[in-house]
Design brief:
Rossmann fold; 3 domains; five-stranded parallel beta sheet; 13 strands; 14% strand; binds 1,3-dihydroxyacetonephosphate; binds iron/sulfur cluster
């Protein structure tokens, strides 16, 4: 039996340094912290976070997505995938402040699902999601016009991945659609295709083409030919009216740059390197990677699969590195060998924006009665986005 070794990879300061050097308006919402951040070298950061959290008591509820750094996860009241965190946020009406350690679209969803008297805080406003930014409200409105002109809008139900802005969620709610996450995408598509209206025979899936394609083909038995890709940067999405009419799944041309790094070569290499390895990947990976994997699922699914794995089993995981490293360390003593699927380091740089200094700053500000970095969705957007999110929460 191979002895499992803890992964010894630290977040590379280089990627963050480059990111922080200038603003990238496509993937970030400003990189300047509007307050005085404690120095990362401050030896009291942990004690300060603890003290501020204790002072706030039940007034604050800290949510941590599985891709967050260890130093942040330590202070999370709950951890989870996007679906679990949305539910957890909605289930805490008593908490005055929700501190969301995740990315912007998750904090927006928490604001939509919590009461008007609750305030959602994102410790670093630069924690965006490049995939969510690949579909803007204007582009999606234009796409709907294209579908209308082709005579297919009436037959189309939008299904939007949680990784989208509140505007896109509102569009989805307004047009009778639902939100999905990587843990309920099949249920969302079943719902969309089976609304009792024979004319509803198409889905516009936003913004992750890979999750849409993987769910349609792998879980629902559709063919690759049933899927077309709408490119918002081409006139008419780069599709003819005939192609739109023939398609069952109209996939938005968006993707996750982190999961996009995994390739068929990564899968073949790891199988050659570690005989008997189980390949487990997130459904945001490309179709060829998902097709070659043994198991596919959300971050929560990945954790549960590794919890249930027998001692001595070997796993190559295709998802963000903070999570994989944490799992490798956690299960090393149980003799489960867990490696990262790719050879190169693969953190989500925007998830990594939330670090201990930002968390301390946010908690101490709240403890001093000052709400910082509040994420607030305007009421009209919120009402339609909520409709779509509530449809998701009510999925069977
Ligand atoms: P999960 O819903 O699986 O946690 O995924 C969220 C995400 O952003 C993956 O890139
Ligand atoms: Fe967005 Fe990808 Fe980061 Fe998830 S991992 S938050 S999809 S960029």
């Amino acid at each position: 039996m191979t002895t499992a070794q803890p992964l010894d990879v630290q977040p590379t300061p280089l990627a963050l340094l480059l990111l922080g050097r200038e603003a990238d308006p496509r993937s970030e919402r400003g990189v300047e912290c509007p307050g005085d951040l404690p120095a990362p070298s401050d030896p009291d950061l942990v004690a300060r976070a603890r003290a501020a959290k204790e002072k706030l008591g039940d007034k604050v509820f800290v949510l941590g997505h599985h891709y967050q750094r260890d130093e942040v996860i330590e202070f999370a009241d709950v951890t989870g995938d996007s679906f679990k965190l949305a539910r957890d946020a909605a289930a805490r009406p008593d908490a005055e402040y929700i501190v969301f350690c995740g990315v912007h679209f998750m904090a927006e969803s928490a604001d939509i699902l919590t009461g008007d008297d609750q305030q959602v805080v994102l410790p670093d406003l630069a924690a965006g999601c490049s995939m969510a930014d690949m579909a803007t409200a204007e582009q999606v409105a234009e796409c709907w016009d294209v579908l209308t002109e082709a005579g297919v809008a009436e037959a189309t139900v939008p299904v939007s991945y949680m990784n989208s802005s509140a505007d896109i969620k509102a569009f989805t709610g307004k047009h009778g659609g639902t939100i999905c996450t990587s843990s309920n995408a099949k249920r969302a598509l079943d719902w969309a295709f089976g609304q009792g209206e024979p004319r509803h025979n198409k889905v516009l899936f936003l913004p992750d083409q890979h999750l849409g394609r993987n769910t349609a083909v792998r879980d629902m038995g559709m063919s690759l030919e049933d899927c077309v890709v709408y490119n918002p940067h081409k006139p008419g999405g780069g599709l003819t009216a005939e192609e739109l009419r023939a398609a069952k799944m109209i996939l938005w041309r968006g993707h996750c740059s982190v999961h996009g790094r995994f390739s068929l070569d990564s899968v073949n290499d790891v199988r050659a390197r570690i005989p008997g390895v189980n390949v487990l990947v997130h459904p945001e990976c490309k179709h060829e990677v998902v097709a070659a994997a043994d198991y596919v699922g959300s971050t929560e699914y990945i954790i549960k699969a590794l919890e249930a794995a027998p001692a001595g089993s070997k796993w190559a995981i295709g998802t963000e590195l903070n999570l994989v490293r944490r799992l490798a360390n956690r299960f090393a003593d149980e003799g489960k060998e867990i490696v990262f699927l790719d050879k190169t380091v693969c953190f989500c740089s925007t998830m990594n924006r939330i670090d201990l200094p930002h968390l301390v700053w946010a908690l101490e500000s709240l403890a001093a009665g000052k709400v910082v970095n509040r994420i607030q969705v305007d009421p009209e957007t919120e009402s339609f986005a909520k409709l779509a999110l509530e449809r998701m929460l009510a999925l069977p």
